[in-house]
Known about the structure:
Elements: H1 10-30, H2 44-47, H3 60-71, H4 93-105, H5 116-132, E1 146-150, H6 153-168, H7 173-176, E2 182-187, H8 192-200, E3 208-211, H9 221-233, E4 237-244, H10 256-266, E5 269-273, E6 298-301, H11 303-306, E7 314-318, H12 321-328, H13 338-342, H14 361-396, E8 400-402, E9 410-415, H15 419-432, E10 438-442, E11 445-451, H16 459-475
Parallel strand pairs: 2-3, 2-4, 4-5, 5-6
Antiparallel strand pairs: 1-7, 6-7, 8-9, 9-11, 10-11
Pyridoxal-5'-phosphate is lined by residues 87, 152-154, 191, 193, 244, 247-248, 273, 275-276, 302, 314.
Amino acid sequence: MHEKSFHMTPEEFRRHGHAVVDWIADYQSRIESFPVLSQVKPGEIRAALPEHPPAKGEPFEALLKDVERLILPGVTHWQSPNFFAYFPCNASGPGILGDLLSSGLGIQGMLWSTSPACTELETHVLDWLVPMLGLPETFLSSSTGGGVIQDTASSAALCALLAGRERATNYTSNQKGCDGHLIAYASTQTHSSLEKAAMIAGLGRANMRLIEVDENFAMRPEALARQIEADKLAGLVPCFVCATVGTTSSNAIDPVAEIGRICRQHNLWLHVDAAMSGTAALCPEFRHIHDGVELADSYNFNPHKWMFTNFDCNCFWVADRKALIQTLSILPEYLRNQATESGAVIDYRDWHIQLGRRFRSLKLWFVIRHYGVEGLQHHIRRHVQLAQQFANWVRKDEHFELAAPVPLNLVCFRHKRGDAINQGIMDRLNRSGHLFLTHTKLNGKLTLRLCVGQTNTQARHVERAWERIREEAARSQ
Ligand SMILES: Cc1ncc(COP(=O)(O)O)c(C=O)c1O
């Protein structure tokens, strides 16, 4: 006699799974028919959902129908080729399928022994990426360092700051806490996750110095050096610097080599945040963005931004894995096992904040194998070309101007007639649903940002975006 069960059988799973994959493929085919930015009002999605959970299970078909009917209107279509906002969060067929397999296996890879393949594939794929991106050999697991997949760049920054804090205090802050003397440095343009890391790591926001930038929004190394000297003179303890390769506002690239030399001189932990732009280094012609990274103690980029790997997937490397492990390792009795004791394996739980971890390397492995280096380079190059073409149109237009250099795939531009007209253009375009743009402020002026990085963005999408921007501008005259 069978035990009573509410579970989905493998046969049912197969049937519904096919329907879900069909639904996703259909979604991909019709994605351009949806308004890119969701048009719902606050509370509208919840108001359409039943107040109470179902007492009895429902047929799977009803669930999928409700995704279409109730959820889709509240989706902002990040995977639309007309998505130019923020930085991209792109996905791809191999990424989605790798993620599905990870869910299907349902493993939790906190220790090598809890799924050796989860650890070893991750180490291997992160080693592959070192030469793919022109990163220093010290980041290889066969050297003193190694790489790990984190959920986000924010988590990577926090781990880097913690390791920098511990190294500067001879690993005593973990025991005693911080005494308010430790100082970290970033630029005024650094992503806010660094300030958050200073809050969480116990340094305090006021001890995160935001160093001024030059006319291209890149950190001024001489200002950094001056600030470090002043802090030392005041009896404070500098411990950490973050340099950014591709800032969020304007894609500025900090002078990593000069910053690195200052860090070496003062023995400060240098973290390089290349969240989106690191992907560009897949192409030899853009690899100069990594000049100086050999001086870094840690580095990260997000394949979940621009390398066709579904969210979430952040790759984080350190040059000296011992410093990171000593910072984050704690071994309760219930996690002890022979493999760990042997010292022959990596236990990634010691490389990040949380204990449990998903099999994220599977989707990254699928992406790299599906595209090959050549395929990845092709699409990255194309995105950069399209952004550069857009920048040229802006340069030639009498009503618009560029607001920052365009090193890669982000164009910061504005209508010359001030903030109100730019705000109006952006709001109307976003309301139209035809495309989605976001803004920043540069030198106090509202600036529009157009980032080309969605997986399927092609020339026609960028051309049409420029036409629509100009049409809206003409309407505002
Ligand atoms: C330069 C930079 N660093 C960090 C982040 C934060 O990324 P995440 O969402 O992975 O924490 C971003 C996000 O856009 C970013 O642009």
